[in-house]
Amino acid sequence: VSREAKPSTVSFDELGSNHLEVVRRWRNSPEVASFMYTDDHITEADQVLWFERVSVDPASRYWVVLLELQPVGLISLTNIDLTNRRCDWAIYLGEQTARGRGVASHAQYFGAIQCFDRLGLEKLCCEAFEFNSSAIELYEKLGFEREGLFADHYVKNGEFANVVVLGLHRSRWISVRAPFDQKYQIPASSRGTEK
Amino acid sequence: MIVPIRVGDSAPIMQWRNEQTYHLRQDRVLTLVDQHRYFCEVLRPSFTDPKPSQLLFSYLVDGKCVGYGGLVHIAWPHRRAEISFLLATEIVGSRFVDEWVAYLGMIETLAFRNLGLHKIYTYAYDIRPELYPILDTAGFTEEARLRRHIAVGDQFVDVRIHAKVAS
Fold first, then answer.
1. Chain B residue closest to A170 (CA)?
2. Do A122 and B156 touch (CB under 8 A)?
3. Closest to B85 (Cα-Cα) out of B39, B49, B134
4. pLDDT tens sequence across A1-52
5. How crowded is residue B124: how many other Cβ atoms within 10 Å of its Cβ?
6. Is B144 within 8 Å of A167 when comparing Cβ atoms?
7. Percent of chain B with pLDDT over 90
8. Chain B: residue nearest A121 by CA?
9. How far is CA B84 from CA A16, A86, B57, B67, in A?
10. Distance (Å, whole) CA A169 – CA A86
11. B39-70: burial string, b at 16+ Cβ within 10 Å, e else
């Protein structure tokens, strides 16, 4: 029996104050924190301050990933740069039950749609620890290409760790998107450019 | 030699920045008011901060300021920083290589020996190829080429990142 989630059961909700505690729990969990650049435990007060900052930041957008209407992860576009027409993204699934079911792939597709179709940007950028090979593989499946390797770039668990930097350009996205469009069934009419 | 950035050098630095925006992350022309505010509100407090996010210096040759730069985006927990350097516009054409070589030696000593950093790197728009042999000779290696990453006029250019790790 396939564990793959039906695309129709995955949806996205703009991050709101009602999501802060679940997001904080995910972010502090070893499964998520082990792939993040910072190790500090996030307190309730930290989380509120963070939300106050990002919710008014025009260069950031956050969505909670829902599976069967239950929050399971987070996707963000940050450093939205309208001058250089690019942004960064980050994705994680906080709920174990959502992993290995194609939900992250669906979330990636949603992020690409937001970047290229909604915001009209030219490039989507991301980074991952070199040891996070499953995330890098997922990015490359969507069409991301490696642009570099930052050696000894972060101290993680007391040791220097390498970071892989990747980019996905609009031209590449156009050439690879068809199967994703088909799979996730986003109608062309909803792909209008926002800016 | 390098000395902590001097307020008296702020006007020529502003002028050089405004003349060389083509390779800087600067999206508008700076004014003297901008510059004064930056020195008072950003740089001055950083002089007493034990872990500042940047350390800037005036670059002097024969006692005259002919450039400025330093370490920026300093990530103390990760012991790395980005190198910044801007030469006076009037000597870019004639002394680019010599001054970059001299400056890199000083900034490397400061970063690795005095500050105990582990890694330094440059972030350069791919429009000054004369920089790369200098970095190569100084032991830097190219870590990334961010393709079509910066809009310059109506075109996109790459960004090239070179780094050196303390031995």
1. B148
2. yes
3. B134
4. 567 888 878 999 999 999 999 999 999 999 999 899 988 899 999 999 999 9
5. 18
6. no
7. 63
8. B149
9. 39, 23, 10, 11
10. 9
11. beeebeeeeeeeebebbbbbbbeeeebbbbbb
User: Nearest-CA residue of chain B relative to A155?
Assistant: B78
Across the interface, whether the CB atoms of B146 and A150 are under 8 A apart is answered no
Measure the CA angle with vertex A144, ends A138 and A148; round to 5°: 105
Q: What is the pTM of this model?
A: 0.88
pLDDT in tens, A98-128: 998 899 999 999 999 999 999 999 999 999 9
Q: Is A165 in Cβ contact with B148 (below 8 Å)?
A: no
How many Cβ pairs within 8 Å bridge chains A and B? 53
Closest CA to B71 of B54, B48, B58: B54
Nearest CA to B122 among B109, B113, B110, B132?
B132
Look at the block and give the residue holding tokens 């080429």. B145
Q: What ipTM was estimated for this complex? A: 0.87
